[in-house]
Amino acid sequence: MKEFELINRYFTGRGISRRDVDLGIGDDCALVNVPENCQLAITTDTLVEGVHFFADIPPRALGHRVIAVNLSDLAAMGAEPAWLSIGLTLPNIDAQWLEAFTDGMHEIAEYYNVQIIGGDTTQGPLTITVCAKGIVPNGKALTRSGARNGDWIYVTGPLGDAGLAIEARKQGWSIAPVHLKNANERFFYPSPRVAAGQVLRGVATSAIDISDGLLADLSHILKQSGVGAVIHADKVPTSAALNSLDNDELRLQLALAYGDDYELLFTVSDDNKNMLEAKLNQYGVEPVCIGQIVNNDGRLELLNNNQPWPLPEVGFEHFS
Amino acid sequence: MKEFELINRYFTGRGISRRDVDLGIGDDCALVNVPENCQLAITTDTLVEGVHFFADIPPRALGHRVIAVNLSDLAAMGAEPAWLSIGLTLPNIDAQWLEAFTDGMHEIAEYYNVQIIGGDTTQGPLTITVCAKGIVPNGKALTRSGARNGDWIYVTGPLGDAGLAIEARKQGWSIAPVHLKNANERFFYPSPRVAAGQVLRGVATSAIDISDGLLADLSHILKQSGVGAVIHADKVPTSAALNSLDNDELRLQLALAYGDDYELLFTVSDDNKNMLEAKLNQYGVEPVCIGQIVNNDGRLELLNNNQPWPLPEVGFEHFS
Lengths: 320, 320
Hints:
Two copies of one chain form a homodimer.
Chain A: H1 3-10, E1 21-23, E2 30-32, E3 38-48, H2 59-77, E4 80-90, H3 95-111, E5 115-123, E6 127-137, E7 152-155, H4 161-171, H5 177-188, H6 194-200, E8 206-209, H7 214-225, E9 228-232, H8 240-243, H9 248-257, E10 264-268, H10 273-282, E11 288-294, E12 300-304, E13 307-308
Parallel strand pairs in A: 4-5, 9-12
Antiparallel strand pairs in A: 1-2, 3-6, 4-6, 7-10, 7-11, 8-10, 9-11, 12-13
Helix pairs in contact in A: 2-3, 2-6, 4-5
């Protein structure tokens, strides 16, 4: 199969067609329209075999995941996802693999009403770079720099499941099949918090998606907002799968310092706290308050059952 | 060096700041503004070590080239380049290499007034995916589908030099140093025809950039416009470097079927031919007429000194 055949078979004419796309796949560029009084939000994420996923990841999960992690960045800005460009580097053409991989892509793209408008297909070690574009009303985007003293700190759902899935496999942990299945499902098919991000818009004071780990991602907000925080480790929501670990330290390590779950972390003022909780509930999201922003020279203080708790090593680091 | 340090040292605060960028590197997304009555043009190109370039390519050239090939796609639509997202996968951190590589990127970005607004840096086999965004007035973009019977076919400059540089190295051809130097320069530092693309806007009937080879890229225009063409191989402009090959067949093979020079191929009606030539001349571009669009069931007829000439094998193909 040649490059053009591959594009024709797996991309052209598949997926949704948005009315704001004048020209999709098949010319030197795509042509799209951004509505008036809106800004364009743009993000890029790369997944590399052996670094971000195991070689035997189900291809449908990989297709889902590479789009999900990009939509998660749009969600963290409160943007409405619109268009995707895909840079796909493949070692060879495996029709069965490609069919499942692109099924995974098209399924999530369709669910979130985003259109794949172009990209590049090349031969080489399996690497996928997605550039996602979304739309946000002028001046309404959520950034990392708006957290203020006294704001409450929330997460949109349980943390640590993706870490559990990865580490259970790496370390050969023995985990009940139902818990392993659930943890794998969260790693393979993360749900970007797109609706929640749009609900937060104009109410939350800052937001970020938890891709590198709760504490690492919170530290970006603290730094860019010029504030500190107190976090209660015992309040961080965790799943039944994670709770099945009988090692409390390990459980907290995964929940606090592992990324890849793609929940949102956000801050909100005391005045707006209850209203925002109620509004998120309407969208099926149950945010959990895990701490508060404080003025303490940018420090991050971690408590567990109100006792000081040592900060775990934070987040995934390339090139460390 | 960690990922954040790498981004800080080589990307953040370097390069130009455009007034239409509200938020650049450092949040979940960049935020930019598209002017009213304009469309957004989006393109993506990936370069992979060992496929698109040799491992020992000068890093400054690689940084230049990966941006140039993307700007060339914007040029082919008549778009004004605006913003770049970079997906950079590196096997390791080599400060000297990175310094030169990012110098090459920032130099060309500055020259064309484009801002690097974000991306992702990961560890893995050397692969670079750039997503370039540009702006074009509503309805004025150049596409591949507008060529009409009787239109003249042009290229914006000499072809085959990049192919000469690559093949001379691969095959160990003996070429005069000055010619080899010039051919390498064109392969390493291609000049995307950004100004020419904007001059063509609203006048040329179709355009494409020559990345896969003249005949392969022309065939896209023919297919998408539903027309055929006659090309005069002897009229295709070639450099002194390429002319120094004493094998005429090889010379034509490189000029007609090798890509990577990033000149534009365009069509223009007989009425607008002279005006467009004069206008391009004002921008230092000397377009050369190499044939004509004809109605002949989509066939591509190649003549050399008015004699039929066999079509060379066309274009670079992944997975062929």
